[in-house]
Write a structure and sequence with these properties.
This protein is of the alpha/beta class. The protein is built from 14 helices and 12 strands. Helix 7 links the parallel strand 5 and strand 6. The longest helix is centred in the C-terminal third of the chain and has 20 residues. The N terminus is likely disordered. The structure holds pyridoxal-5'-phosphate.
């Protein structure tokens, strides 16, 4: 008799490899099948196999949804066609006049979604430095319904104290939403620290190969899950069976990829600190980073994202045109090292005044460290920075 596996007691390195069911219980296939079907045949009136129509549920998407729930240590997972579709679904939980406090240093697309789409439906947003609890407290109003936090933030790598913030939020019945894209459940599990909703751009580390867009959401509360399910099936921004399979395959190697990427990032961050044309390095794993201690208390790793300032704009131009191995491209988290210029790419939607206030200036570069040989990456950056 084949038994459906239950991997919930295993450590995270094992869980990522085996997913939710571990294999296809019908055939024993070790690679979970891609159920490329829009609809499902009913056995008889009022009977269902559990699947009716793929916008509502699809077996491959369900395996991914159960897998992400499993590795985030949550109960209910949801997969969307992109990270932004996932964030948008969460925003649909709120009503006109609801107020949301948001990390001021965050993914530019999230800022654009809030300011250019949801504001006109009457939602109110305040952007604060969420690495300072007193700044969050001061921004709370009577109609504050949620905190939307990135930690570490994109691109300044500021760290928010999730346990303290969640205690504060619970006392006031405020929902804590955490974008866990940068550290992934391999290093940080916000639900265990008191968050209510975890959201991901699965496009980044979970997929890991710069080949698929995806978004994921995980919650513990059943009522919240019902509301998200309703929005997901009504709005329909669901992840396709094939893309669900690609993310499932990506997650299998999440552990080994992140270990290697983090090891590389540490080496590269230390090297950048010594370079004469580099004026500041933001990497959470450096002991003099402001968020180092908090990060150690709530996450098992520092990740592989680095941002750094170079001495002037001319150096930015030189670096971006001279890098060869490290590709000048948007996105992050994949096996290939990528370098971006936040002020004109990922964060262009954020007003210049706000960008300069938080540090996203015209001399800031962001590096997503891949799994290549660290010395090759350093050699490439060295020739580009000279
Ligand atoms: C990329 C990213 C998003 C958006 O995800 P997409 O998959 O590109 O839609 C949201 N949050 C963070 C932190 C990201 O890096």
């Amino acid at each position: 008799m084949m038994k459906v596996g239950n991997v919930s007691n295993y450590s995270i390195s094992t869980k990522v490899v085996h997913g939710s069911k571990c294999y296809d219980p019908h055939t024993g296939a070790v690679s979970f099948p891609i159920y490329q079907s829009a609809t499902f045949r009913h056995p008889a009136l009022y009977q269902t196999t559990g699947y009716d129509y793929s916008r509502l549920q699809n077996p491959t998407r369900e395996e991914l949804e159960n897998t992400i729930a499993n590795i985030e240590n949550g109960k209910f997972g949801f997969a969307f066609s992109s990270g932004m579709a996932a964030v948008s679904t969460i925003l649909s939980l709120f009503s006109p006049k609801d107020h949301i406090i948001v990390s001021d240093d965050l993914y530019g697309g999230t800022y654009r979604l809030f300011e250019e789409i949801y504001k006109k439906y009457g939602l109110e947003f305040s952007y604060v430095n969420t690495s300072r609890i007193q700044d969050i407290e001061e921004a709370v109003k009577e109609n504050t319904k949620a905190f939307f936090i990135e930690t570490p933030t994109n691109p300044m790598m500021k760290v928010a104290d999730l346990k303290t913030i969640s205690r504060f939020a619970k006392d006031r019945k405020i929902l804590l939403i955490v974008d866990n894209t940068f550290l992934t459940p391999y290093f940080q599990r916000p639900l265990e620290l008191g968050a209510d909703i975890v959201v991901h751009s699965g496009t980044k580390y979970l997929g890991g190969h710069n080949d698929t867009l995806a978004g994921l959401v995980v919650v513990n509360d059943e009522e919240l899950a019902e509301r998200i399910k309703l929005i997901q099936k009504s709005e329909g921004a669901v992840l396709s069976p094939f893309d669900s399979w690609l993310i499932l395959r990506g997650i299998k190697t999440l552990g080994v990829r992140l270990e290697k990427q983090q090891e590389n990032a540490m080496k590269i961050a230390k090297w950048l600190c010594t370079h004469k044309n580099v004026t500041k390095v933001n990497y959470v794993g450096l002991p003099d980073h402001e968020g180092y201690e908090i990060s150690k208390s709530q996450a098992s790793g520092f990740g592989a994202m680095i941002s750094f300032n170079v001495k002037d704009v001319q150096t930015v131009e030189k670096v971006l045109s001279k890098v060869q191995l490290v590709m000048f491209a948007e996105s992050l988290g994949g096996v290939e090292s990528l370098i971006t210029y936040p002020a004109v790419q990922t964060h262009a939607a954020i007003p210049e005044e706000m960008r300069n206030r938080i540090g996203v200036t015209d001399t800031l570069l962001r590096l997503s460290v891949g799994i290549e040989d660290a010395d090759d990456i350093i050699a490439d950056l060295e020739q580009a920075l000279e």
